Automatic annotation (TrEMBL):
PANTHER family: 2-AMINO-4-HYDROXY-6-HYDROXYMETHYLDIHYDROPTERIDINE PYROPHOSPHOKINASE (PTHR43071)
Keyword ATP-binding: yes
Family: In the N-terminal section; belongs to the DHNA family. Belongs to the DHNA family.
GO molecular function, one term: 2-amino-4-hydroxy-6-hydroxymethyldihydropteridine diphosphokinase activity
Name by which UniProt lists this protein: Bifunctional folate synthesis protein
Catalytic activity: 6-hydroxymethyl-7,8-dihydropterin + ATP = (7,8-dihydropterin-6-yl)methyl diphosphate + AMP + H(+); 7,8-dihydroneopterin = 6-hydroxymethyl-7,8-dihydropterin + glycolaldehyde
Function: Catalyzes the conversion of 7,8-dihydroneopterin to 6-hydroxymethyl-7,8-dihydropterin.
Keywords for this protein: ATP-binding, Folate biosynthesis, Kinase, Lyase, Nucleotide-binding, Transferase
Length: 278
């Protein structure tokens, strides 16, 4: 479990009076909500230095959650929990993830229950992306894609490789590509990230006319944490990354010792093997 590699700070049963709900009496009169939060963080440095700046101030977090919950009403308790968990992660950079439970003890269901609650766990994730362009202003398209990713509140670009000029892949006659890779910190799920990449491609007027054909912008998810995923439109790790030097070379630049979760080999090892095969 990912949560086991981090220490935990707990806030239990913080009471907040807010106006979340669907019914008029909920939105106008309000009701009590109870918040429990587990913060996943490395407390080692704070424990060794006894310095508040090296930890997350649970009092500040509690005050922040109280104010935010009051000021941002939602119809659904699921939406209120999702919004609050994301905002706490964005507000406190030391946090790796959170488990948040939002309880609604006065839920208007007309039955003798103690409480209704939603409990979610959300983490920052690390993804590696491949970027490519071989139409128009190639460098401009890559720069714009990086800018769009980094300007999104739920994404942070941490490293970008240099740009590499490569011959086209796949046998279609076309201009040379400009390729790169980047390291991304994100709150998005793999599917959400894929959809975001498609939006950025569309902003660059990407047209999917010919497989492996020319394109203004091509964005691929190479790795997402150490997940292995296969859906109808997304496979992680990228199925051909170990066969492409224009992926492995920039990956070796930004993450030479990152291991392929299926092959168990580092990017450097994969590139050496590919070059040995010619």
């Amino acid at each position: 479990m990912k949560t086991l590699q981090y220490d935990e700070i707990h806030v239990e049963n913080l009471e907040v009076f807010a106006n979340h709900g669907v019914f008029p009496e909920e939105t106008s009169l309000g009701q009590k909500f109870v918040i429990s939060l587990t913060m996943y963080v490395d407390t080692r440095k704070a424990g060794k230095t006894d310095c508040l700046e090296e930890s997350v101030h649970y009092g500040e977090v509690s005050s922040f959650m109280t104010a935010y919950t009051k000021e941002h009403p939602r119809k659904l308790i699921e939406a209120a929990a999702e919004d609050l968990a994301e905002t706490v992660l964005l507000q406190y950079p030391l946090l790796k993830g959170v488990t948040l439970e939002l309880k609604k003890p006065w839920a208007p269901v007309g039955l003798p229950l103690e409480t209704v609650s939603v409990k979610i766990t959300r983490f920052w994730h690390t993804a590696y992306l491949a970027l490519g362009s071989n139409l128009g202003d190639k460098e401009g398209y890559l720069n714009q894609a990086i800018k769009e990713l980094d300007s999104a509140k739920d994404c942070q670009v941490e490293k970008v490789s240099s740009y590499l000029v490569t011959e086209p892949y796949g046998g279609v006659e076309q201009d040379d590509f400009l390729n790169a890779c980047l390291k991304l910190k994100t709150l998005l799920s793999p599917q959400e990230l894929l959809e975001r990449l498609h939006e950025i491609e569309q902003n660059a007027h990407r047209e999917r006319l010919v497989h492996w054909g020319p394109r203004t912008l091509d964005l691929d998810i190479l790795l997402y944490d150490d997940e292995v995923l296969e859906t109808e439109d997304l496979i992680i790790p990228h199925v051909e990354m170990q066969l492409r030097d224009f992926v492995l070379k920039p990956m070796c630049e930004i993450a030479p010792y990152k291991r392929h979760p299926l092959l168990g080999k580092t990017m450097t090892q994969l590139l050496c093997e590919l070059e040995e095969k010619g």
